Each structure stands twice: as structure tokens, then as C-alpha cells.
From TrEMBL:
Residues 1-112 form the Response regulatory domain. PANTHER family: STAGE 0 SPORULATION PROTEIN A HOMOLOG, TRANSCRIPTIONAL REGULATOR-RELATED. This is LytTR family DNA-binding domain-containing protein. One of its GO terms (molecular function) is phosphorelay response regulator activity. Residues 139-239 form the HTH LytTR-type domain. SMART domains: LytTR, REC.
Length: 242
């Protein structure tokens, strides 16, 4: 996390030492004036500001109020009565001088959690979106005199029988039968979710219950693994192995 420390020139460098001791803090600059700090904020991406409330010409609190875009803020002060005002402008923390290292570590952990939570949330949201997207993906299949939609995540396996195929799903007792070929259908299926394991079979990887050298088991069905498909299928299984 990129950070700057703003204190008066004669201030002790205690917090500066603490910042250099925490591995996830990168002290970009130790500023003795808000003007220097402002230039840094304009030119660098700063994640957190440590600022003394008692500065020259302008208070640390007023300086933070003047910023249009505020990173995380931690105030340093020897005036406990300023704590309420600091939290009114959404400061991450208020450290009363002299600052002990244990107290500083609590602030550091709070900063780390605040900084990483949006990143974790974004990653989780992306994963949830992808999962939801996969669950909603469908394939259109013509059967008899109608066209039906089948959700990809419900397909257990597909069996090819000369000029037509049977699609077995998790919510129907009987397969959906349609004029098609395994090769053509395979082109419309995501390769990370389906694998052709035999000239006559495509299986849904998420529905496999067990595997041995010659076959896979999906529910009560034993499906043979063709010799020419074995290596590619085994490679996919290795990627899923934990």
C-alpha cells in the first residue's frame, strides 16, 4: 500500500519508523508541508495518508477536507478532543501521540483489511457472476415438432447413435432425442465443462461420480473411455484434481 506521512519538520520520526517496519506499507514520501503532500497526491497513486492534525498554516483535518478524492486517512494528534471531528470525515483511525507500536499495528491491520476488502469483493463478485452465467447458459435442441432449451449445467452426458443423439439431463428421466452429430454439438459446448471420452459419448465433467482406467460413472451409467480420447480426458481430470 502506497502511503505518505505528513508531519511538521521538527516532529519525531517514530511513525515513520513504524511504517518502514510493516511489509505491506510503502512509504512514498515523508512530507513536512501540505503543499509537498498535495504535489505527491497529484502525481502518485496514494492508498493511505498518515497526517498530523497540527501542521503549519492549515490543520491536518482541514487539509483532508480540501481533497476532492480522499484515500484512507489516519490522523496523528496529541489532542484527544479532535478524535470526534476526525471520525466525522470518515477517518480510518485516530492515533493519540505518543503512538505505541502495538497501537500502530492495530491501525495497520485495519488499513490492510479496508484496502483488500474491495479487491476481494470484486474477485468474489466476478466469480459469482461467472457461476451465474454458466448456470444460465442454454443450448437449443430441435426434437419432434418443437424446439426446447436445455441448460448446460443440467447435461449429464450425451450419447451419439449414428444420425441422432440422446441428451441425458439431471431433471428428466428420459433423454432428449434430436437429429444431430456429436461433433457438431461438441463445438457449442464449453470445453472446461464437457469432454468427449468416446466416439459415442460426451460427458459433463461436473456430474462424474467416479473414474477408473476404462470408464467413468455418472449416476448409475458406466460410460467407456475410448483409447484415442484417453490422454486428453486424463489431462482435464488432472487439472481438476486436488
Amino acid at each position: 500500500m502506497n502511503c505518505i506521512l505528513i508531519e511538521k519538520p521538527h516532529a519525531q520520526n517514530q511513525v515513520k519508523e513504524y511504517l518502514n517496519m510493516v511489509p505491506y506499507f510503502n512509504l512514498v514520501s515523508f512530507c513536512s508541508s501540505v503543499f509537498d503532500a498535495y504535489e505527491i497526491l497529484q502525481s502518485r497513486k496514494i492508498d493511505i495518508i498518515f497526517v498530523d492534525t497540527d501542521l503549519q498554516r492549515i490543520s491536518g483535518i482541514d487539509f483532508i477536507k480540501s481533497l476532492a478524492h480522499k484515500p484512507l486517512v489516519v490522523f496523528l494528534s496529541d489532542k484527544p478532543e479532535l478524535a470526534v471531528e476526525s471520525y466525522n470525515i470518515n477517518a480510518l483511525d485516530f492515533l493519540l501521540k505518543p503512538v505505541t507500536f502495538n497501537r500502530f499495528l492495530k491501525t495497520a491491520n485495519k488499513a490492510y483489511d479496508s484496502f483488500s476488502s474491495p479487491i476481494k469483493k470484486e474477485a468474489a463478485d466476478k466469480e459469482n457472476h461467472e457461476q451465474a452465467s454458466n448456470q444460465n447458459k442454454t443450448v437449443l435442441v430441435k426434437t419432434d415438432y418443437k424446439t426446447i432449451l436445455i441448460r448446460l449445467n443440467e447435461i449429464l452426458y450425451i450419447e451419439g447413435l449414428k444420425d441422432y443423439i440422446k441428451i441425458y439431463t439431471s431433471h428428466k428421466d428420459k433423454p432428449v432425442i434430436t437429429l444431430n452429430s456429436l461433433k457438431r454439438l461438441q463445438q457449442n459446448l464449453p470445453s472446461d465443462k464437457f469432454s468427449r471420452i468416446h466416439k459415442s459419448y460426451i460427458v459433463g465433467l461436473d456430474h462424474i461420480d467416479a473414474i477408473n482406467k476404462t470408464q467413468v460413472m455418472i449416476h448409475d451409467k458406466h460410460i467407456p473411455i475410448g483409447e484415442s480420447y484417453r490422454n486428453i480426458f486424463n489431462e482435464k481430470m488432472e487439472e481438476l484434481r486436488i
